[in-house]
Design a protein that fits this description.
By secondary structure, this protein is an alpha+beta fold. It has a single domain, classed as Nucleoside Triphosphate Pyrophosphohydrolase (Alpha-Beta Complex). It contains 4 helices and 9 strands; from the N terminus they run ββαββββαβββαα. The strands form 2 sheets. Strands 3, 4, 5, 6, 7, 8 and 9 form a 7-stranded mixed sheet that branches. Strands 1-2 form a two-stranded antiparallel sheet. The chain is globular, with a radius of gyration of 15 Å.
């Protein structure tokens, strides 16, 4: 079974996104709350449905839950745009899309602290979830809203959906 590389080096950043150091994934996710940058992409189709990924059971954070279509760390030496392109291709196999940045915020939990660069796109082509995921599908917005708070989604997705995505709809 695959597993996350806890020795992977991640950049550390301040609230403005300036890189101030580096730490391992394990150090960033062990409750230290070392802030590290991540990218998210919300993928809508032309019917207004939102694609969500199913996190595999082997993930170190929120295994088995539904989450943002694409979410991943910015690697050392990468900028946000490079990380977004890499993560989108690695997770859902899309290379031709137009991302729009909609928000940057700090997500803070008992396990980690992330500077989240949130993007959205409208895409009607084929989505090919890779082995990094346990699949995915488009959800009607009403079905997402009906399942908020029921343990179906990651807390990060729920918070981001309610604060950032839902007001755009």
């Amino acid at each position: 079974m695959p597993k996350d590389n806890l020795q992977e080096m991640l950049p550390l950043c301040d609230a403005e996104g300036n890189i101030i150091g580096a730490a391992t994934r394990g150090e960033c996710h062990n409750g230290s709350r070392l802030m590290h940058p991540v990218v998210h992409l919300h993928v809508f189709n032309s019917r207004g449905e939102l694609y969500l990924q199913k996190r595999p059971d082997w993930k170190d954070i929120q295994p088995g839950k539904w989450d943002t279509a694409v979410g991943g760390h910015v690697d050392l030496g990468e900028n946000v745009e490079q990380a977004l392109r890499r993560e989108v291709e690695e997770e859902i196999g899309i290379t031709e899309y137009t991302p729009e940045r909609i928000k940057v915020y700090v997500f803070d939990s008992v396990r980690e602290k992330e500077l989240v660069f949130v993007h959205k796109t409208v895409y009607d082509g084929e989505i090919r979830p890779t082995t990094e995921l346990d699949g995915g599908r488009f959800w009607r917005i009403s079905d997402i809203k009906a399942n908020i708070g029921k343990g179906v989604f990651t807390p990060n997705f729920e918070q981001e959906f309610m604060a950032t995505i839902s007001p755009l709809l």
